[in-house]
Amino acid sequence: MKKNIIPIIALGTIAIFTSCDELKQAANTITTTTPAKPQLTNDEVVSGLKEALQVGIKNSVNLTSVTDGFLKNADIRLPFPADAMKVKQKALEWGLTSQVEKFETTLNRAAEEATKEALPIFANAITNMSLQDGFAILNGGNGAATKFLKDNTTSQLVTAFSPKVQEAISKVKLTDYWNPIINKYNSAMKISGGEKINPDLNAYVTEMAIKGLFQMVEKEENKIRLDPMARVTDLLSKVFGSIK
């Protein structure tokens, strides 16, 4: 009887160790298996990119359409028009420093005022933007979606935004600060035989305001790409969380 007990105990011991090995393998399988990321469709990616741009332009307008939104932001502040730098230099020589400073301040006030009307214009451009390959833009790196928007909608944005800028220029009375400077300069040029200058302030403010907004939108896009906390919707989390 004792002889039979020994083989039975041995078999039981083997069975126990075999079961332990199987359990360890099962545990390892469970701990090393991670759930697969949900597969994205191109339509979801396109929707996510457009949503990111919508968030970006909304935040950008909120930041720029307030007092000093352009003036105190060194990245987008409107300087004296480049093609009128001779006017600025002469004005400073004539002791018109205060007038030049007031003009530059009001130039930025015009951009800030016009930007208040930018949101629906940009939102419409984003909604109607056609994206064939959302994955290429999603994986295109920082600013890729903003660059695509800029390349494909700038001309339409200029057309739509220009009347708003004209209204803003009138509201902040920009020409009241510009005319004394340019008239004095052009009068001097008439006497000296130099070239008269009178840049299109509406075109200048329009161009620079749109450029500034795109810069701000790109910053917002990059924030969404890099910071999960900036992905304020489930779609943004899903789409931008997929970037490797």
Supply the key terms:
244 residues; mainly alpha; 10 helices
Could you explain the architecture of this structure?
The chain is mainly α and 244 residues long. The protein folds into 2 domains: 1-34; 40-240, no CATH class. Helix content is 73%, strand content 0%. The chain has helices at 2-32, 42-64, 85-93, 97-115, 118-127, 134-138, 144-172, 174-192, 201-226, 234-240. The longest helix has 31 residues, at 2-32. It is elongated, with a radius of gyration of 32 Å.
Task: Assign a percent range to the helix content.
Answer: over 70%
SS-based class:
mainly alpha
Number of helices: 10
How many strand units?
Answer: 0
Number of domains: 2
Overall geometry comes to elongated
SSE series: HHHHHHHHHH
Give a short overview.
The chain is mostly helical and 244 residues long. 73% of the residues lie in helices and 0% in strands.
How is the topology of this model organized?
Blueprint: H1 2-32, H2 42-64, H3 85-93, H4 97-115, H5 118-127, H6 134-138, H7 144-172, H8 174-192, H9 201-226, H10 234-240
Helix pairs in contact: 2-5, 2-9, 2-10, 3-8, 4-7, 4-8, 4-9, 5-7, 7-9
